[in-house]
Amino acid sequence: MTVLITGATGLVGPRLLPRLVAAGISCRALVRPWRVLPDGVERAEGDLDDLASLEQAAYGVSAVVHLAALFRTRDEDAIWQVNHQGTKNLIAAVQRVAPAARFVMASTSNVYPPDLDHPAREDDPTTTANAYAASKVAAEAELRTSGLAGAVLRFPFIYGDGDGHLHDAVPLLARMGAHPAQRFSVLHHEDLATAVQLALTGALDGHVVNICADASVSVFEMAQLAGTSFEPSSQPLANPWQGQVDASLAAQFGFVPRVLTAAQAGREQRL
Question: I need a labelling partner for 166 at 20 to 30 A (CA). Which of 12, 101, 113, 187 fits?
Answer without folding.
Answer: 113
